[in-house]
Specification:
Elements lengths: L6 E5 L2 E3 H7 L4 H10 L9 E3 H10 L2 E5 L15 H7 L7 E2 L3 E6 L5 H12 L14 E6 L2 E6 L5 H8 L7 E7 L6 H12 L4 E6 L8 H10 L13 E3 L8 H15 L2 E2 L6 E10 L3 E10 L2 E2 L3 E4 L2 E4 L2 E3 L8 E2 L4 E5 L10 E5 L2 H21 L6 H9 L5 E8 L2 H12 L7 E9 L4 H10 L2 E5 L2
Parallel strand pairs: 1-4, 6-8, 6-9, 9-10, 10-11, 22-23, 22-24
Antiparallel strand pairs: 2-3, 5-12, 7-8, 13-14, 13-21, 14-20, 15-19, 16-17, 16-21, 18-20
Helix pairs in contact: 1-2, 7-13
């Protein structure tokens, strides 16, 4: 058969022998024999790379081309967090680079906690006492002279709350994916949440030390989920690591700094002081203790601050290692004592000129919250939403789709995308099978989206 008679076929970067035989309309035995004749021993379930698959395809009458993936869309998927809007109002000439703030997401048991512990034990800044003795929800590490702030939020409760309040504090998300397990349902949810918060994603491909680790399969699944690896002509950095063996950690930190340089993480240390509450609790002996992440300006001991529906004058302030400090600039996590009540994780804090002004601000917020609670008793309907479209107040319909079976999900998405017009664009933030969950509602709240269920 001449080259002109070869049939074209598109193949992914990696594929199993069984899948290749199905695409080539050939028996698995013939594919395995062709592999053996080319010096490759493989069973029916074994993964082979594109180059090997292309050789087999050529001998069986096909001209193979590498499957390409469209990079993730750049359009905004949710509302811009308030803190970013506030920084944008600062004089550009006063903005300077600040350390990136990073949080870690991923499926349960994929190694998030182990990865955090490995990074912390190897790279904690000024770790003179053998590790952090006081856990305050955030810590800093140093790599090549650059500081990186990590939000250490067990269960990621603070990250969820930040998303819901539009004040999510991270600049970069590390998505942990186990190389032996691949992309799982919680992985897809984490991707949707990070995109809704408009945060760039770096994939930490963990557990590469496992004998059943399959990096190519995991990358294939990531590409299908919209995160095309950079070595597959995409724009998502995928870094192989082993948190258990502590390998690849420097590469991961380097990737964080690379992304941070691309997105220009800036703040004005002399500007308006504000930030986000990471966590807070009431201590029997010391009162309310809150962990804050400063995002702009410089927070000082003695400042009066408001956070949600609480306020107070800072009596004491500590760094992430529990050392007393007098001030903290952008991207610095601090623990403070002073607030009259426990704020919610994700609340924004800001300074006030006096306690009197702070009391007035908090009182106004309480009244506004009561009014909002009353108005929310009547849930917004699709009719009301389309009325806003007709009034020109909305240009995009953001949807979260849940269906009972995968076979229904794909045609539903296709039909909805066909509804795109110049006046209204349909943006499907997340689509999956199964019942509507709390995470779906949380994502919808963050992105001002509508949840639609089909037979669930």
């Amino acid at each position: 058969m001449t080259e002109n008679e070869l049939k074209e076929i598109i193949l992914p970067p990696s594929i199993t022998v069984r899948e290749l035989s199905e695409r080539l309309n050939a028996s698995p035995i013939n594919v395995i024999k062709t592999l053996m004749s080319n010096g490759v021993m493989a069973n029916i379930n074994q993964q082979i790379d594109f180059d090997t698959a292309a050789i087999v395809a050529s001998e069986l009458g096909y001209d193979a081309a590498l499957e390409t993936f469209d990079a993730a869309e750049k359009e905004p998927l949710g509302e811009i967090p308030l803190w970013r809007q506030l920084i944008a109002r600062e004089d550009p000439d006063d903005l300077i680079p600040r350390p990136p703030v990073v949080t870690i997401l991923g499926h349960v048991d994929h190694g998030k906690t182990t990865l955090l512990d490995a990074i912390r034990s190897a790279n904690v800044v000024n770790d003179e006492y053998g590790g952090i003795t006081q856990h305050i929800g955030a810590y800093q590490v140093q790599h090549d002279g650059n500081i990186i702030t990590f939000l250490d939020t067990p269960g990621h409760a603070a990250f969820t709350a930040m998303r819901a309040r539009g004040a999510q504090g991270a600049d970069i998300v590390i998505l942990v994916v186990a190389a032996d397990d691949g992309v799982m349902p919680q992985t897809k949810e984490a991707i949707a949440h990070a995109k809704a918060a408009q945060v760039p994603i770096i994939v930490a491909l963990n557990k590469i030390d496992r004998p059943n680790a399959d990096i190519n399969r995991a990358k294939q699944q990531l590409a299908e989920a919209g995160l095309v690896p950079d070595d597959w002509e995409g724009d998502t950095l995928v870094v192989p690591v082993s948190a258990k063996e502590k390998t690849g950690l420097d590469d991961l930190l380097e990737a964080i700094l690379l992304v941070a340089n691309d997105i220009e993480i800036l703040a004005n240390p002399e500007g308006t002081v504000f930030g986000t509450v990471i966590e807070a609790r009431r201590d029997r002996s010391r009162g309310v203790i809150a962990t804050l992440l400063v995002q702009n300006g410089t927070l000082k001991k003695g400042d009066v601050i408001t956070a949600g529906e609480t306020y107070g004058k800072i009596r004491a302030m500590f760094d992430y290692q529990g050392n007393p400090i007098k001030s903290a600039g952008p991207s610095v996590p601090v623990s403070i004592m002073s607030l009259d009540d426990v704020p919610a994780a994700g609340d924004m804090f800001e300074t006030a000129k006096s306690e009197r002004e702070a009391r007035t601000t908090v009182r106004d917020r309480e009244l506004a919250a009561q009014e909002a609670a009353q108005s929310q008793k009547q849930a917004a309907s699709l009719e009301q939403l389309f009325a806003r479209f007709q009034a020109g107040e909305e240009k995009e319909l953001r949807l979260i789709i849940k269906a009972d079976v995968q076979g229904s999900l794909e045609p539903i998405q296709s039909s909805l995308r066909d509804l795109n017009t110049d006046e209204i664009s349909i943006n499907i933030l997340h689509a999956a099978t199964g019942n509507i969950t709390e995470n779906d509602i949380m994502l919808a709240t963050t992105a001002n989206a509508i949840v639609i269920g089909f037979n669930v």
